[in-house]
Amino acid sequence: MSKLANFKDVIDYVKYIKDISHELSISSDVEKVLITNKSRGRKRVYGVLKSISIGEIKDNAYILMDDSLRQLVNIATRVHRYGLFLGIGCLYGKVDNRVIGAPLLLMELEIDENENKLNLTDSIFVNYKLISTLIGYYDDFDVEEVDQSVLRDDTISKLVGSLEKLLEKGLKDYKFSELAERCFEIINSSLNLESRFRTKRETITELLERKQVEKLNSQIILDVNALYILALDVPHEVSVFNSIKLLEEELEEKGRVQNELINTLMHGLFQRKVESIYPDEEQWRELESYIEKYLPLTLSHKQKESLLKTLTSKISYIQGPPGTGKSYTITAIAMLGILKGLKVLIVSSKEPAVKVVAEKLEPFLRNEMGFLPFIHVADGVRNRLREEIGKLLGLPRNDLNSKQKQTLKVLEYLERQIDRIYIQIKELEERVEYLINLNVEYIKLSRDLENLRRYCEDNYYAIREDGVDIKRENIRVLKAIKSYLKNLTKDNYILPLSQAIFYYSALGLLYKFGKPILSRDFYRYYIRTPEFLDLAIEVYERYATILEHYANLNRFDINITKKNLKELKHRLEELDKEYIKAKNNMRLFESLLKEDIRQELNKFSRLLYYTNKDRIAELRKNIRFEKLLEVYPVWICEIRKINELLPMVPEIFDLVVIDEASQVNLPEILPVIYRCKKLCVVGDHKQLSLISTGLPLNLSLRFDEITWNRYRPGGMFYSEGRNRNLTVTKSSILDLIISEERYITVPQTTLNEHFRSLPVLAEFVSRTFYEDNLVIMTKTPDKINLLPNNLYPVRVSGKRDKVGRYVPEEAEEVVSIIESLRKTKAYGDVDLSHIFREKEKFSIGVISPIRNQIEFIRNIMDARGLDFNNVFLGTPEEAQGHEFDVAIITLSAGESASKQHYENPNRFNVMVSRAKYFTFFVYSDIPMNFSLTRRYLNHFGYNLDNISVGQKGYLIQSTIRNLWKFDENRFESEFERMVYYQLKAYADRRNGVKIYNQVESCGRRLDFVLYNENNHKFVAVEVDGIYHFREDNPREYNRQHIERMEQLMRAGWNIINTQYYKWFDKYGRLLLQELVKNEVERIYRLLDEHLGFKNDNQPF
Q1: 723-746, pLDDT tens digit by residue?
Q2: CA within 20 to 30 Å of 803's CA: 98, 212, 300, 355, which one?
Q3: 542 touches 452 (CB < 8 A)
């Protein structure tokens, strides 16, 4: 392999990413780990395992474990898989109303099971999470707002630099207490702690109780001699660092890595020539029909397009605005990958995002033995997998052979049935398109014929309206007359007898059709009226065509054809569900009959028994994972757990799908991409980008700048690197892929059908952040009528704390709302009990732009002993990727609040788009310049000037009665008017049925909606014609008509179509009553069925 053209730039960039991943691994440390809360009575496994003395550290190298400590270590590492650390020094107290209690420094420990001891390591971290609390959070400043001031902050720069130099010396130059003392001196000197807080030193002999620490207002206590053995989440950045180090070594040795995807990405970052990535057209065509034929999921047009781009492109991007079915689309990608024999890795920075994909896949893929062809790396998976693999390896070979043969027969049968039904579907789809086009042509022809009839009547003759035998040869004869007459001159009055007989027999055809006005001098008359025969020919042609159309429309009834098509598609979907399971079974049985795969399964089962990372790494080296992936082709994993089971092997997966990609940073994702051949990023650049380290911005930016300047990839200064979305603290993998400064362009699809929120909630998000391009699929009568409004503003008295930036009164009100909803499913004027009647536990999400406000609410709930089940507390950054039945937004704003932070469009988008049914908006003050916040409340009908503190102002706004109307002036044709008269006659005989016309729903317009107010059932009646689309291309009209019907049905609409030719004759005149009767009675039967009435068979 040749070196990458810009090798120097790439290797510098990889070194930068490697170093920053190590330096930012401190993000997993905590600031309250030494504090207990005895009132909650919880057992502590996470946190302190034991307080030790300096004498227990032998030779400055290890700690011997007694039986009690060993038991705790086993629970922490085997059950919870926490890492072990030595906490050095202790600082506790209350800072800006935030409780702290944690070691100043942390050292990673290694378990030596043979020697029964814990070995000290050289890996020492400063607890920057603790220091960040001492500094104060910058969480109500936007990244761009605080950038420049932070980068010029010498205090932060000196603090970080001094602490990093201290760590370089470590225990080589200092004892434990001396190291803690020196660390505190640096912090105190930089942050002036002793001038801001009362500081004293004490010896701490036991864990700290929360109530005890709560009393220490603006006071901190230091013990430099304290030592603790701690169990904490292992910073996965440590394993990321090791993985990227392997990439660096590979680059140094070979000039490129053994992964073409990473080579393409890295090369594209620094080249100056734009490289475009296009889908493979041949693969696209083959895959398009395969999806239709074998995938047992109903997809929208955009979802299907996203699947095609994902599997036919090296890199692709699926933009998924809130509630548009990202997880459903990823599920479809995984299922298609299984059908095509691909190995697929699905990852996210958040466990809930991958968990929902696993839950969606399970019912489609679990076979009769309970086997699943995917591994979801989550808590409890090891025991389940070991048990499952044991059962698989325990199957006798004779049984496997028998099952394989039986499954082969099932597959062959299913393929024949699928082929047969698929062909029938295609034939019916073509017929539907043909009949739709025919209906449109019939309408146009009937209008044209009526205009011709009137013209002829006014100028020449009256066309007969009784039946006429029109034949195509008659038209040919008339054209021949026209041709002969053109050759005659006005002086040539004598015709051969044969021609004269021909002409006059042909002209007799006109008498059959009407009574033409002829003069004696036929030729002179023709010369005076040259349009006469042209007109006759046109009338003949249109009349003949319309009769043929009418015959075909009646021969292939489109409503019956659509019904048959729907039934066939349902049958195909059921067969596809059987097929994918049979396909999985076939692969499973074939794999289990191969000895090499059985060996790898056995090795993997042994690996699952261990939790020690060193032991796992040793066993993993001997497993050929490409064989294991024959049995488990799909892996679903939170990114931080990727190294628990999977090795760092290039291109073992065909595709990686990264969900919530806007929150995945570059260091953690590069090792994931290394394992794959294709990349699909799923996210939304109009929502929030990543929280790069979990540290406040002032610290993480300083780390980032220092590390960048060590290497300066591409010769760029740090500011240029940030502008080009190359730096870790600013850019996610999504930012990198879609950056305007990038030199790679990738295929992109935007999902646009929103299924999450009730209409009024979703409409604000669509209109404000997505140019009103989201199709609100919840805009159906049953959902519109659920609530009279979907937002309730609750104004409280109170002021924002200037230091902590929280509003206590808002926090108290939020807790009151939670308690009230849990007890009664209601609060104030808002009653949600009818929505959650059958749902005892519903989810509540509390969201605030200010982290301290969330912490304040958590402290209140904790102090009152309230449980957090089904209650989420977090900032918009943490809430992204979640959805809640009810959202409670607590603004926590004040006069000095930063508009740039609060009204950052991406942050505001996430904050207001989490609720499915209802949002409470709790606030004490909204600054005058908060225009987006005010527009949000105005959207629901609320005027801030009219809301006083404590006012219960629940507005009734969004019901069908004031959203949908009936207006006779909105009829687009006489056809609609005729249909309405029959629908009105139906509604008059049915109690509670209301009729609305020209209803906007799901991005479409419906001619009529009938709604039963008694049971909330609804149905649409569509008058098929040429009124919904303006395209001149009939094929485009057909495609849009079918797509429109499918989209409405996905939203839950039942639709009754009625066609023009069943109501009007060839001249566009209403048919006789007995001819319309059958169509009206058909419509009435379907209306009764969909609206929940028993057909009364009343005469038409």
Answers
A1: 888 888 888 899 888 877 656 788
A2: 212
A3: yes
Domain range enclosing 502:
399-593
Is residue 941 in a domain? yes
Q: Identify whether 171 is part of a domain.
A: yes
Co-location of 1016 and 871 in the same domain = no
- Please tell me whether residues 901 and 991 are part of one structural domain: no
Q: How far apart are CA 791 and CA 764, in angstroms?
A: 12
User: Which positions ≥6 away from 370 have C-beta within 8 Å?
Assistant: 388
Q: Do 476 and 581 reside in the same domain of the chain?
A: yes
What per-residue string of b and e applies to 820-858 under the rule 16 or more CB within 10 Å gives b?
A: ebbeebebeebebeebeeeeeebbbbbbbbbbbbbbbbb
Q: Measured between alpha carbons, how far is 739 from 684 in angstroms, rounded to an integer?
A: 13
**Helical residues (DSSP H) of 488-530, grouped into ranges:** 497-513, 522-528
Domain boundary among 208, 234, 260: 234
If you ran DSSP here, which 8-state letter would residue 1064 be given?
A: B
Tell me the chain's radius of gyration from C-alpha atoms: 37
Look up the pTM and report it. 0.84
Length of the chain: 1100
User: Of 593, 611, 636, which residue is a domain's last?
Assistant: 593
- In the predicted structure, residue 1087 carries a pLDDT above the cut 50: yes
* 670 domain-assigned: no
Same domain, 947 and 1005: no
Which residues sit opposite 1071 in a β-bridge? none
765-771-777-781 Cα dihedral, nearest 10 degrees:
80
Collapsing DSSP to helix, strand or coil, 520 comes out as: coil
In this structure, the answer to whether residues 921 and 1045 fall within a common structural domain is no
Q: What is the largest CA-CA distance in the chain?
A: 137
Mean pLDDT for 392-409 is: 94
Residue 922 has a pLDDT of: 95
Q: Are the C-beta atoms of 680 and 701 separated by less than 8 Å?
A: no
Task: DSSP for 284-302, please give it.
Answer: HHHHHHHHHHH--S---HH
Which position has the higher pLDDT, 460 or 546?
546
Number of domains in the chain: 4
Where does 686-726 have alpha helices with state H?
A: 697-711, 718-723
Within this chain, do residues 1018 and 1060 fall inside the same structural domain, yes or no?
yes
CATH number at residue 1000: 3.40.960.10
**3-state secondary structure (DSSP) of residue 755:** coil
Please give, one letter per residue, the 3-state secondary structure of 141-156. CCHHHHHHHHHCCHHH
Residues 99 and 192 in one domain: yes
Same domain, 945 and 987: no
Closest CA to 319 of 658, 700, 751, 693: 751
Strand partners, 125: 106
Task: Give the pairing type, strands 1017-1024 and 1055-1059.
Answer: parallel
Q: Which amino acid is at 925?
A: D
Q: Supply the pLDDT for residue 903.
A: 93
Q: Order across the sheet with 871-874: list the strands.
A: 791-795, 915-923, 884-890, 844-847, 871-874
Burial letters for 1001-1034: b for 16+ Cβ neighbours within 10 Å, e otherwise? Answer: bbbbbbbbbbbbeeeebbbbbbbbbbebbeeeeb
Tokens 């100056």 appear where?
A: 272
CA angle, residues 146, 148, 151, in degrees to nearest 5: 105
Average pLDDT (794-816) is 89
184 — pLDDT class (breaks 50, 70, 90): very high
User: The domain spanning residue 941 has which CATH number?
Assistant: 3.40.50.300
Please report whether residue 809 resides in a domain: yes
**Nearest residue to 426 (alpha-carbon basis) of 311, 282, 572:** 572
